[in-house]
Structure formats: C-alpha cells, structure tokens
Design goal:
The protein has 172 residues and is of the alpha/beta class. The chain has 5 helices and 5 strands; from the N terminus they run βββαβαβααα. Helix 1 (41-59) packs parallel to helix 2.
Length: 172
C-alpha cells in the first residue's frame, strides 16, 4: 500500500488530499484546506511550506502530486499560484519526496472522463470514487482528484511495465 499526498496550490487556500492505493484498491485517508493567512506574500509562502511539511511529517506519504501551472486571465494571479506551488514543492523535496505534476485537464480527464469538467463534477466523482459520505469542499476535492490522477497513472504504468516484462520473456 502506498500513500499519495495531492496538493491543489493556492495563495489564499491550498487544498490537500491523502489516499492510500495498491494494485486493486484506493482508500481515502484525509483531506482539507490550508487557509493561507499572512500580511505579505513571503509570509504566505512560508506558511504553505511549514503546513505541507507538517502534513508530510504527520501522514508520511510515499508519493507527492501537485497541479501544474496554468495561465490565468490575470498574470499576477498566475505568478502567485506559481509561487505557492514552489513553496509546496520545496516542502516535498525537503522531505525527499519525488514530485509528480499534472495539468488541470489531465486531472479532470482521469477523474471525470472529460478534460473540461466543472468543479462540481470533480467533487461528485471524487465522492463516488472514494466512497465518501459527503462531498468534500472544492479545494480538498481538487487535491484528492490530483492524488487519484497520480494513482491511476501509476497503476497504468505498472500494468504496461508488467506486460512489457512478460513480452520480453516470450521473445528471448
């Protein structure tokens, strides 16, 4: 069983989601939102770094996945998002976790089956896929979707590797 920490970065709210997965099962562990309060951007980035470092210490994930940068209508917002991502990534790298990055469309495609899915559709499918009693808050659902996307990608890569190994064995 492997634990994945998914992060939906933001300069005001950063969502996190933890799942356990193996070859046949995926299980919800925890999720929530970090309220990023601070007087300055450096204060906010320091808070993101410390809070994610604490999540990693508490939950001990073996894998870390985060949403990649996408262009907002506002360049300033995109820069702040990129800096929030950087703080989160630094926390993961500081704890010796490899970082996997996924585009928003890729995450939605993996979880909903449609790259242009609405937030409510992502929330609904996260609830269904993880058998949750209630619908998670949007940022937490996005973080869980990122973790699920990574899980699905890892499972697919493992199946391809296994098939290739079998095939190599046949043709020797």
């Amino acid at each position: 069983m492997s634990r994945i920490l998914g992060i939906d970065p933001g300069s005001r709210i950063t969502g996190y989601g933890l799942i356990d997965h193996d070859r046949t099962r995926t299980r919800y562990v925890a999720s929530g939102c970090l309220r990023v309060d601070g007087d300055s951007l450096p204060d906010k980035l320091g808070l993101i770094f410390r809070e994610i470092s604490e999540l990693i210490e508490t939950w001990r994930p073996q894998q870390f996945a985060i949403e990649s940068v996408f262009m907002h209508r506002n360049a300033g917002s995109a820069l702040k998002l990129g800096q929030a991502r950087g703080a989160a990534i630094c926390a993961a790298v500081d704890r010796d976790l490899q970082v996997a990055e996924y585009a928003p469309r890729e995450i939605k495609q993996a979880v909903v089956g449609k790259g242009g899915a609405e937030k409510s559709q992502v929330q609904h499918m996260v609830r269904i896929l993880l058998n949750l009693a209630a619908t998670p808050q949007a940022d937490a659902a996005d973080a869980l979707a990122i973790a699920l996307c990574h899980s699905f990608r890892s499972q697919a890569e493992n199946r391809v590797s296994a098939a290739a190994a079998v095939r190599r064995g046949r043709y020797r």
